[in-house]
Amino acid sequence: MNQLKNAVGRRLVVIWVLAMYLGQCTKDIIRWPRPASPPVVKLEVFYNSEYSMPSTHAMSGTAIPISMILLTYGRWQYPLIYGLILIPCWCSLVCLSRIYMGMHSILDVIAGFVYTILILAIFYPFVDLIDNFNQTHKYAPLIIIGLHLALGIFSFTLDTWSTSRGDTAEILGSGAGIACGSHFTYKMGLILDPPLHILPLPRHPISVTLFGKAILRILIGMLFVLVVRDIMKRITIPLACKIFNIPCDDVRKARQHMEVELPYRYLTYGMIFTTLGCTPDMEKIEEQFANLNIVKRSSETKEPTYLLGIDTSKTVQAEKGSLVAVLCSNGSIRIYDKERLNVLQEFRGYPGLNGVKFANSCDSVYSSCTDGTVKCWDARLASEKPVQLFKGYPSNIFISFDISCNDHVICAGTEKVDDDALLVFWDARINSQDLSTTKDPLGAYSETHSDDITQVCFHPSNPNMVVSGSTDGLVNVFDITVDNEEDALVTTCNSVSSVSYIGWSGKDYKQIYCMTHDEGFCWWDLNHLDTDEPITCLNIPDVREVINVKEGILDYLIGGLYHEKTDKLFVVGGTNTGIIHIMSCTTSGLVRVTSLQGGHVATVRSFCWNMQDDSLLTGGEDAQLLLWKPGAVEKTLTKKDSMKIASSVYQRVRVHSNDSYKRRKKQ
């Protein structure tokens, strides 16, 4: 959320600086005086020495609300009518106030409004390009400072001194400071814009806490500006007077010289906003995790089961909102309403299901099955029958799968049968000329794994890259655009233990990580494949031996979470009593961030983090599906006891055990 506010704020400053600078310079070129008094009664005289045409207040009052709507609509979820109401209200209040104060005529205000519309029409399409240049170009700070300084010198040559000279330098200094600050924060990785595919974000509800934080930020910012301005004023004005041999007995007269006013305003406000721009957001992701509270528990079901897998729909239906698919240990998949956690429908009677996944562009739900198929249901239909079956080769037993980010390819991993463990591929696209509900494989990889393939995971943004993990300990990365298996293998990493979870992380997802069935953790950087640097970032044989958690112990690992907004990797684990531990991952090790308690009362099997609204879904052996959100308050506080399942099911699902760990501790 806050990374998005930074992105919008930077672009808004670019538009504001451009509109105000052009307006101030145009005033000095046209040189129309203020309305005569009398007959006009002037309630403000501070800016009386400036020219009148066009009204820069009207330009600012037009540029800011229009730009705010253009920049935020589609990035946040809100009705467009709100913006269409805000724009005329904001513009009219600012414009009418300038006429009321006696500082502008109606013609000045109209000219300012029309001039701003023209500026936005010409320059708004380039705002993203300018912002990207400010952040990423190697020499951006030098170009920013040089350009803004040159524009300031030019504006000072247009006419004799007036208050607009100082305002122009102040505007340019502020713009240069924000631009330079954004460049430094980007290079240091402190603030990264949220990826486009998670937009639009939902609006956070207005609360007393949120309002209080906003007021506190404003007060701290104002205090900082006042202190720095006072310090810089005491330094820059005497220094500039000394350098250019200008008497500084009367500071007001001294500042009427360009050699004094321009350095004072430019350096002061440039430093202020460079510092503010370099300050990372106060609301860190660690604080969001620490503030997670239960907002909703799933409703009762007739047949309580372990909840083995969770995924949320990528599409949002206006009437239903987001959907949640949950894989249950009784061989069914339940579809929930995310906000109410009510069961909308259930696909029953399919023992041997492994994994659950929504398509990226529709509400199709997929799961692999030990009967040698990958099944696809339409979550919008009431029918329990799969709408498509992806059949494997004879004797295939599928225990893992994934679908590419563009929904074109499905890949499933098999158990080892007759010395073969396969990665099987299908074309998942629907062909209008072939309405068959059953599809045969495109092909398979058979040479790179020697045991059960327990995990398959496509790259989040590159549909041609896929990583697989196996009980043989190998983690293989493939480029499926290459024809044969040997050449398609990009790299092989060895976890030295049976792989239980894999994922992608890092900027542009150039890193992979895995967890093992004996609670080990490995992290590799694929950027180093063509360098002499080692690709292993971190290798922990048993996380339970090295992590220090305050609330009890760590019994097992559940999975990983890469937070795109902050470019941080987190590891999620838990205890047999239902406590969830969230740990941050760095090259120096794992550090506990927070522990979530009061929710589950038994082993937690699955989770799903939603980047759009910073919510967390968890499911476990207590048959509970929980929805967690930062600062939320649970309406109902009922808990469920731990439950037991028939032995046949118990043997089929993963069981976390710390017996081996206890034996090692005794040695």
Task: Tell me about this structure.
One of its GO terms (biological process) is lipid metabolic process. InterPro entries: PAP2/HPO, PAP2/HPO_sf, WD40/YVTN_repeat-like_dom_sf, WD40_repeat_dom_sf, WD40_rpt, WDR89. WD repeats lie at residues 446-488, 597-629. The chain has 667 residues and is α+β, with helices and mostly antiparallel strands. Among the domains are: 1-281, no CATH class; 398-518, Methylamine Dehydrogenase, Chain H. Strands 6-7-8-9-13 form a 5-stranded mixed β-sheet, with no helix packed on it. The longest helix has 36 residues, at 208-243. 41% of the residues are buried.
From the structure above, extract its key features.
667 residues; membrane; four-stranded antiparallel sheet; alpha+beta; Methylamine Dehydrogenase, Chain H; elongated; lipid metabolism; WD40_repeat_dom_sf; disordered C terminus; five-stranded mixed sheet
Report the sheet-strand fraction: 25-35%
Please report the number of helical segments: 15
Q: Can you summarize the main beta sheet? A: 5 strands, mixed
Mean pLDDT: 82
| Terminus-to-terminus distance | 49 Å
Percent helix range: 25-40%
For this structure, the quaternary state is single chain
The low-confidence parts are 637-667
**Per the principal axes of the C-alpha atoms, what is the gross shape?**
elongated
- How many strands in all? 29
Q: Radius of gyration, Cα only, in angstroms?
A: 31 Å
Strand order within the widest beta sheet: 6-7-8-9-13
Structural class based on helices, strands and sheet pairing: alpha+beta
